[in-house]
Specification:
By secondary structure, the protein is mainly alpha-helical. It has helices spanning about 1-20, 35-45, 70-75, 80-105; strands at about 55, 60-65, 80. The chain contains 4 helices and 3 strands, in the order H-H-E-E-H-E-H. Strands 2-1-3 form a 3-stranded antiparallel beta sheet.
Length: about 100
Amino acid sequence: MLLFYAVDAGLKAVLMRRMNVADTNQLGESYNFGHDLNQDLDHLRVGHLKIPSSNILAKTTRPVESKRINEVWRYGARLQPQDETSVVSRLRDIITWIEQEMVNR
């Protein structure tokens, strides 16, 4: 869950740096800041890093949108093992991209 929020904050930091602002309020209404990492990735034009939708591990498997994955972890549910591995791997890929972006600009 902490990895998810680190990516969330990092993407916003990259966006703010690119737009040369010190506060998200300065970005205007065109940017809706929730926890939709895929939306943030679209804003940054790195859609190839998008997080796929996943399945919650429960008595019955049910899908969860990528923008709700943080809620799965926050409320103690679990993703299907292969989905969790995929999501965590993608979050790490995004962290690597954020690090490169922040160093190179």
